[in-house]
Amino acid sequence: MEKIEMKTPLVEMDGDEMTRVLWQMIKEELLLPYIDLKTEYYDLGLQHRNETDDQVTIDSAEATKKYGVAVKCATITPNAARVKEYDLKEMWKSPNGTIRAALDGTVFRAPILIKGIMPYVHNWSKPITIARHAYGDVYKNVEIKVPGAGRAELVFTGADGEEIRETIHEFKGPGIIQGIHNTDESITSFAKACFNYALDTKQDLWFATKDTISKKYDHNFKDIFQEIYDAQYKEKFEAAGIEYFYTLIDDAVARVIRSEGGFIWACKNYDGDVMSDMVATAYGDLSMMTSVLVSPSGVYEYEAAHGTVQRHYYKYLKGEETSTNSIATIFAWTGALRKRGELDGIEELVTFADKLERACIKTVEDGKMTKSLSLISTCKNPVILNSLEFIQAIRATFDAL
Ligand code: NAP
Ligand code: MG
Questions:
Q1: 3-state SS class at 301
Q2: Do 132 and 146 belong together in one domain?
Q3: pLDDT of 65-76, one tens digit each?
Q4: What does DSSP assign to residue 161?
C-alpha cells in the first residue's frame, strides 16, 4: 500500500510519562504504516526542557506560528516534588501556559461521544464544545483583606495623570475587596477565535455573561463580541447557516441543560473553568475529551485534555500491565492531520483522520476497551485490553473499515 504524502510538516511536541509511551505506540501502530509522516520534532519531555532551560518549549511555540499546526503530548507541569524527582535546575513554567501566551489563544474542549457511554444529561446527543477565555478576571486579581472601618476606592490613573475614582464601599468593620481586569485586546482575540472556530466546525456559537449586573465589565465583553460579529462575521455565519446567540449566563445554563448539544459555548475565564469540568464529567471523563488551542491568527495546537497519567506510568516502569486510554491522544493526532490536510489540500489525509476516529469509536462500541472506559460504559461484557492491545485493536478495526 502506498503511504499518504504530506507537504508541510506538523509541529510534533513530545511529552512525559504514560502519554509519552502511548505517543510512540500511536506513531508506530497507527500513523507510520499509513502516512509518510512529516513532522518537526520538539522534545518537551521534562528532562529535555530542563537541559535546554525550557528554550525547547519556546522554540516549539515559534515553530507552531511558522507552520500553523501542532500536535502536543501531555507534559508535566513541575511542582516541588517534580523538581526533586527530575533534579531540575528550576521549577519550569507550565508548557501549556508558555504556548498559550505565545499563541495568544483560546482553548476549545469537546467530548468524544460513543454509544454505550451515556451522558448524565440524557438529551445531550451531540457534543458541547466549551471555549474558555484564558486571560484575566479573577485569575489575575488583586485582593485585600480589609482589617476594619474605612473607605475602599477604585482608582485609575491615566498615562496623562488624570484620575478616575469610584467608591467601592464605606466599611464599618472588617471585610474583603478584590480588583480584577481584562483588556479589549484580549477580549477581541477571544471573540475572533470563537467566531473562526464556529465557522470552521459549522456550529452555532453561544456566549453569555452577567451584563445586567456588571453593566460595564461584563457589558464590555458583550459589546465587543457584538461589534466584531456585526462587522466581520455576520455574513459569513449566514452563508454557513449558523447562528451567533447571546444571552444572560443564568438563561444560558438553563438552555444548555435542555439542549441536545452540538454548539460552542464561549465562556469567560471563570465560567469556562467551572463549566468545562461540569461538561467533561457529564459526558464521561477527561480521557474522552479533545482539546485544541486556536489563535486569532488561525494557528492550531491539538492535544488531549488529560495529563500524563502518572499513576499508570509508575506501574509501567515496574513492568506491570497498564490499560490506559489513548483515544484523546489519537484524536489530537487526527485533529492535527485533518487540519494539515485541509490547509494543504490533501484529501487523503482528511479521509485518513476521519477513518481513524471512526475506528476508535467502533472499537469501543464493539466492546473492546480500556479498563477506565469499561467503568463508565453500559456495554454488557466488555473485553478489557492493555494499553498496546487497545491500540492494536483500533488498527485492526481501521484495516477492516
Ligand atoms: P492525569 O494524567 O489527568 O490523571 C489522573 C487520573 O485520571 C489517572 O490516575 C487515571 O485514573 C485517570 N486518567 C487520566 N487520563 C487517563 C487515560 N487516558 N486513561 C485512563 N485513565 C486516565 O492527572 P495526574 O496524574 O494528576 O497528573 C499527571 C501530570 O500531568 C502532572 O504532572 C500534571 O502536571 C500533568 N498535566 C498535564 C496536562 C497537559 O499537558 N495538558 C494537563 C493536566 C495535567 P486512575 O489512576 O484511577 O486509573
Ligand atoms: Mg477547573
A1: strand
A2: no
A3: 999 999 999 999
A4: S
The ligand 1 atom at the shortest distance from the C-alpha of residue 309 is: 2
Contacts of 217 (CB under 8 A, 6+ apart): 180, 182
User: Which of 48, 27, 117, 18 shows the shortest CA–CA distance to 391?
Assistant: 27
Enumerate residues with CB within 5 Å of ligand 2 (an ion). 273, 277
Residue 292 domain-assigned (yes or no) = no
pLDDT digits (tens, 9 = 90+) for 155-171: 999 999 999 999 999 99
Neighbour-count burial for 130-163, b at 16+ CB within 10 Å, e otherwise: bbbbbbbbeeeeeeeeeeeeeebeeeeeeeeeee
Instruction: Please check whether residues 366 and 278 belong to one and the same domain.
Output: no
Gap from CA of 9 to ligand 2 centroid (Å): 33
Residues 24 and 136 in one domain: no
pLDDT band at 277 (very low <50, low <70, confident <90, very high): confident
Write out the residue range of the structural domain in which residue 47 sits: 1-108+306-401
Question: Taking the model in full, what pTM does it have?
Answer: 0.90
CA of 319 to the centre of ligand 2 (A): 33
pLDDT score for 207:
98
Domain containing 388 — which CATH number? 3.40.718.10
Query: pLDDT-based confidence at 385, cuts 50/70/90?
Result: very high
Which helix (H) or strand (E) element contains residue 27? none
293, part of any domain:
no
Q: Please report whether residue 318 resides in a domain.
A: yes
The predicted-structure confidence for 214-227, as pLDDT tens digits, reads as follows 999 999 999 999 99
pLDDT of amino acid 61: 96
Distance CA 294, CA 63 (A): 15
b/e map 198-234, b = 16+ CB within 10 Å = bbbbebebbbbbbbeeeeebbebbbebbeebbeeebe
Question: Same domain for 148 and 132?
Answer: no
Going from the C-alpha of 342 to that of each of 7, 133, 232, 332, 336, the distances in angstroms are 11, 26, 23, 15, 10
288 within domain boundaries: no
Q: Where are the alpha helices (DSSP H) in 345-386?
A: 347-365, 371-376
Is any ligand 1 atom within 6 A of the Cβ of residue 96? Answer: yes
Domains held by the chain: number: 3
